[in-house]
């Protein structure tokens, strides 16, 4: 909008110099924003001209300041990130009312989300607006994931295979301190690779390590880079352009790898031997090849695999890192988890999902990790399908809706002492696990995370397998790691080293 405004003013006032034109731009953009602003929006913090509330969000931690603003403006309020209007939902009641009770309105995606896609058009599953195409592709993806073991014993075997590889890699360090982050990322990535690509990678595979670095970068754009993704003119500002291009280059590394795997699959494709998700998509595409309106295209496949790969890697590996950090910081809880594992599995039997119901304390501990860590503090931005009135406010069609999951997981009305790590929140007086709907780590409603079932399998099997074999400690004399973490895309624990002491 800014670039087009500059061009328009230059044509309208040819005698104006560049500086004069640039001085007019903010006034024109501000006028456009004010003219477009609906009358009965939810209230919100006053922002600056042009940039809105963007500077406040950049200078602070977004989920924390949005939670703080909700105390003043209510659970539904409006912010501006540049000229982009965003309605923020805070608290379980407002989020549940919007995403579940009013799902027809709040289950779409805002048009600006297309800016984050590979070509600005092909939206995959994660960014596709709510409608027939999204329903068709989500149904196909869920059926395919089930076919390749999600929720079944066959996938348990692959997860446990990766757990054994992780154990071996950790044992190479002996009693020396090491950082587990890359090992964990490699382990979790291999699970989604086995489903999508039909293969796994060794820990010392240089090409795969480069791929994991690219995933890290794609998942951690700065607040300014996020604005540049949504607001095109910012991409040409020198101080922002370099970071934005670096982000896009990391995307390209992943895309090129996926395209290479798809090419290999096409060359070896056998419709009587469907090996993985890519093969399943190619088969579906072949069935529809006479349909000129088919959406089962190669670019769609690339986009969907990219989204599955991204979603299936960092959030789960970061959650497991948080789990180990909490075990180190709370050795009494680690001991209780190990006692329960020993009582159910003993020293040699590998865990299975059938054991989960027999391990209420372990399940409560993992649930508390998901609550307190809140690795994904925001859901993928939602959008309104049409003009609506919500809690007395008028919200236009295609409005971006930001779901602040952090505000739910750290609500003192729901969780007394919300910053305290306490698995007993999820146990009744008999010690049985109590599921609480207010834990929405995978979001809620129709756009709930596609990989929720896979992630829950991985978290339980990896966590129990690790604590069955090792006791985790800080190196002697090492300072206590922070529990606050860092917010760069995801909520990640600060880097820390640990010692994995083998258990007898």
Word description of this protein:
The protein is of the alpha+beta class and 504 residues long. It folds into two domains: 36 residues, no CATH class; 466 residues, Cytochrome p450 (Orthogonal Bundle), CATH 1.10.630. Helix content is 51%, strand content 8%. The chain contains 19 helices and ten strands. The protein has a four-stranded mixed sheet. A two-stranded antiparallel ribbon has the order 4-5. Strands 7-10 form a two-stranded antiparallel sheet. Strand 8 and strand 9 form a beta hairpin. Helix 8 runs antiparallel to helix 9 and helix 15 crosses helix 16. The protein is globular, with a radius of gyration of 24 Å. The termini are far apart.
- Taking pLDDT < 50 over at least 5 consecutive residues as the criterion, the unreliable ranges are 1-25, 30-35
Number of strands: 10
| Biggest sheet details | 4 strands, mixed
| Termini gap | 65 Å
Radius of gyration: 24 Å
What is the highest CATH level, the class of the largest domain? Mainly Alpha
Average pLDDT figure: 88
CATH superfamily of the largest domain: Cytochrome P450
Coarse structural class: alpha+beta
Number of helices: 19
Strand order of the largest sheet: 1-2-6-3
> What is the number of domains?
2
Order of helices and strands: HHHHEEHHHHHHHHHHHHHEEEEHHEEEE
Anisotropy-based shape: globular
CATH architecture of the largest domain: Orthogonal Bundle
Strand content: 5-15%
CATH topology of the largest domain, by name, is Cytochrome p450
Level of helix content?
40-55%
Protein name: Cytochrome P450 2U1
Keywords: Endoplasmic reticulum, Heme, Iron, Lipid metabolism, Membrane, Metal-binding, Microsome, Mitochondrion, Mitochondrion inner membrane, Monooxygenase, Oxidoreductase, Transmembrane, Transmembrane helix
Pfam family, one: p450
Family: Belongs to the cytochrome P450 family.
